[in-house]
UniProtKB/TrEMBL annotation:
Residues 1-29 form the signal peptide. The keyword Transmembrane helix applies. The chain crosses the membrane at residues 303-323. Residues 277-297 are annotated as: Disordered. Residues 48-268 form the AB hydrolase-1 domain. It comes from the Bacteria. This is Alpha/beta hydrolase. GO terms for molecular function: hydrolase activity. Pfam families: Abhydrolase_6 (PF12697). Residues 277-290 have a biased composition (Polar residues). InterPro entries: AB_hydrolase_1, AB_hydrolase_fold, Sec-Metab_Biosynth_Hydrolase. The keyword Transmembrane applies. Keywords: Hydrolase, Membrane, Signal, Transmembrane, Transmembrane helix.
Length: 331
């Protein structure tokens, strides 16, 4: 049976509508593509720089590094020279200069004193994180602050003279092997404490006697983990430092080496500091119920939505026409 001229005309109109819908969908894809590319160029996560303290090395951060990297954070844990506050902070500042983009700077123990000086004047350091740390103000030394809040550390220190090239001489401070477990790492297995005792890196006396010349925590937001069972730095000193710096503070039941004994708690605090850095990561997704967030939609997103709506309308209209004509088709 030959098709009627009316039905042929209807089919032509249907083809035109479907073609228009296809074109609209293609335009939609072209409009949406730049938005996808924009997402791909979103700011990277900040680099987390971990600074160890006295009697330790970069490996003390291993558990934290593994967890941060699983979350997509770039991490470095450079060696802290442990030769003196002025020398050490200058060296760490030079390490920070080699890092691209925003930085979350973390210090444990004496490393806290180092980062407070090293970060001064560096606008890329967005957050400071202190883990059972020394946090010195300008004019303070680790020695002077610890005198106000005594701990058991004084009973566990062994002084060893050293010689270096050019006739340099000085005194290194070690932890006594039979005291390290109790004073430094009481919540770790004894076997782990023995390894820490054998591999400990000593600090020169200048690390504790030199005074801080600046205090970066006065300008940079900070987070602080207080170790309630710390016998190396008095927990009361840690609370005083955190309060003075207006740090976002958490407390856990830990020995001095919280990053080894409780790496997840330390990682969680670092991520809080990292995600609070507005310039270091994209803004969180807006709540759909927030009218202000809806008003801040990107123009490309709005355009794509209008094109999709038009394409759907054209397509549905064409389908409706086809079914209507078929129902009226003569037998």
């Amino acid at each position: 049976m030959a098709a009627s001229p009316a039905l042929g005309s209807a089919r032509g109109r249907l083809r035109a509508r479907v073609a228009a819908a296809g074109c609209a969908m293609a335009v939609c894809a072209a409009v949406a593509a730049p938005a996808a590319a924009e997402d791909d160029n979103a700011p990277r996560k900040p680099t987390v720089v971990l600074i160890h303290g006295a009697f330790a090395d970069g490996s003390s951060w291993n558990g934290v590094i593994e967890r941060l990297e699983r979350r997509g954070y770039p991490v470095i844990a450079p060696a802290n020279p442990l030769r003196g506050l002025t020398t050490d902070s200058a060296y760490i500042a030079s390490v920070l200069d080699s890092v691209k983009g925003p930085i979350v700077l973390v210090g444990h123990s004496y490393g806290g004193a180092v980062i407070s000086v090293a970060a001064a004047g560096n606008s890329r350091v967005k957050s400071l994180v202190y883990v059972s740390a020394q946090v010195l103000d300008k004019g303070e030394s680790g020695q002077s602050l610890a005198a106000r809040y005594p701990s058991e550390l004084a009973t566990a220190i062994k002084a060893v003279p050293y010689r270096a090239g050019g006739g340099v001489r000085g005194t290194d401070l070690y932890l006594k092997r039979d005291k390290l477990h109790r004073v430094f790492a009481a919540d770790l297995p004894a076997s782990t404490a023995r390894l820490l005792a054998a591999t400990q890196r000593p600090a020169a006396t200048a690390a504790f006697s030199e005074k801080a010349k600046v205090a970066a925590w006065r300008q940079i937001p900070s987070w602080f983990l207080v170790a309630r069972q710390d016998k190396t730095i008095n927990p009361r000193q840690e609370r005083f430092e955190a309060k003075r710096a207006h740090s976002h503070t958490v407390e856990i039941n830990s020995s001095h080496v919280a990053m080894i004994a409780h790496p997840q708690a330390v990682t969680d605090l670092i991520i809080k500091a990292a995600t609070a850095t507005g310039s270091a990561r994209p803004s969180p997704a807006a709540n759909p119920s927030d009218s202000r967030a809806r008003g801040e939609s990107r123009p490309a997103d709005a355009a794509a939505a209008w094109v999709i709506a038009g394409a759907v309308a054209l397509l549905l209209g064409g389908v409706a026409l086809l079914f209507g004509r078929r129902r009226r088709r003569p037998r």
